[in-house]
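Why PilZ domain-containing protein? Reviewers of the renewal asked for a concrete example.
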Amino acid sequence: MKYVVYYELIIIFFLLIIVYRLIKDTKNKHQEINSLKKRLENTSSKPLSATQFLKAQRKNFRIKVYNVPIELTITKCDNPKLQKLIGKKINGDIEDISLSGLKFISEFSLPIKVKFETDIMFFLKNEQFKITALLVRKEEHIKEKLISYGIQFEKMSYKQEKQLAVSLHKVETERK
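Here is what the prediction returned.
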């Protein structure tokens, strides 16, 4: 009889622990729900349209270009071991371009995990462009020795941006 009472006490103790944990978990879930509700209230109530979504994904529309050479000169590198690359000129061809950046292909391989600041120079519709930019993406092609790089324009004056917009418009209207 004495053992039965002990077993009952142990079972009651474990049940109390389980109930305590359930209550604690429930409180945590309620706090999480309330925090999500507050975040939801702070966001816009309307869902994004397809156009808004695409604009959020990519700031500017990219235009395909063909046979547009580019010369890239590395001006800064955040890795001390790669300082010897400063001043290195890399040649390639632009694949597509927008007001905020471009994609070009080259045979030269750079470690993209390192932050490279570059000066780029190219001609588009007989207009010369010299822009400071950052290397932001690298795509290696398996079948070819070519490597694609994503470039983000950094320091571009209003005049340069306007000039580029006019040139891009000319490229686009010639296709139509």
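Strands lie at 63-77, 89-97, 101-106, 116-124, 127-140, 147-155. This is the kind of structural detail the renewal will allow us to pursue systematically.
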